[in-house]
From TrEMBL:
The keyword Protein transport does not apply. This is Ubiquinone/menaquinone biosynthesis C-methylase UbiE. It holds the Pfam family Methyltransf_25. Residues 59-151 form the Methyltransferase domain. Residues 240-325 are annotated as: Disordered. Transmembrane segments: none annotated. Residues 240-252 have a biased composition (Basic and acidic residues).
Amino acid sequence: MNGEAWQSDEIRPSTVHRAYGRGASGYDAFVGSIPGYRTHLRVSASRMGLGDGPGLRLLDIGCGTGVSTEALLTTVKGAEVVAVDASAEMLAVARKKNWSPRVTFVHTRLETLAEAGIEGPFDGILASYLVSNLPDAEHGLRLLLSLLAPGAPLAVHDYAVGGSRGRTRWATANWTYLLPMASMRWGVSDLARYRMKRVGGAGGPEQMVHRMERAGFDDVRVQTVGGVQQHLVHTFLGRRPDEPDVVGERQARSSALAAAGWRPDRAEPEPDDVGSEPVDEGGPGDPGYADEIPEEVREDTGGDGDAEPDADTEPPTPPSGNRQV
Ligand SMILES: C[S@@+](CC[C@H](N)C(=O)[O-])C[C@H]1O[C@@H](n2cnc3c(N)ncnc32)[C@H](O)[C@@H]1O
């Protein structure tokens, strides 16, 4: 017995894309039965604050059947999108849809992007329900960081459930609609049960924020979505620091300054003081993330990904000075 004894015999983080492949034909019908699924993806894409995005190059990593790709294209209208997935079957469903020539689909894993000829820098990355599927989330986040241009954002749109309330909410969501809908529409009940256990054991929003910070992201923020997925699904935003090699560059710079006889100003805050600042939720003081979500993003447009109206999708909450969890 090891720490992964809870996993089903068939599905492992390193092979989960095969299970998605088995369920590819039913995937859109399944996510279409989750109220707000497409709307929430558009909200997360919009929260990156990229505007209309002409000339921008974006990555949709773990694009699946293209539902998240569509969210990126409809919110960042002028951007070019490279959409990547490890499952050939999921991509085959995606490719059958009607796409703008600005979209390119690529069959590879996050871990082997360079071998597939996909290189950064990207002006923004959307990772929707990908990170919770990775064998090592922090390693995956580091790979994503390395693909971003300095200052560019990553939006992780994903489940995160923590504490007894969060886990109870997650169990209720699974037993009342996710598992029954997966059985009726998706055809891969084993994958749905695997996801229930994996997400349930992966920690809450705070842990995800810490993972992103440890991976090297700046300005990490989190906000949940509205409706039945509230406090289950979140947008985690982080940015590649403007100075990629902060430690090395700072050390080199301070050695050069010391050699020139310069002394650091002691009135400057120590790095630890800066690190203890709470991460707020975005808003006017937030360097670049969207502080308002356009009306057309928040409202359902009646696509096949939102079976029910999603009037309760909420715009971002005002900054509170605390992380939202
Ligand atoms: C839940 S689906 C999300 C699809 C889409 N982003 C959406 O929001 O509907 C997760 C996708 O991640 C893909 N995936 C899992 N591990 C991966 C990896 N290491 N690299 C690339 N894709 C991966 C799976 O094949 C699957 O299509």
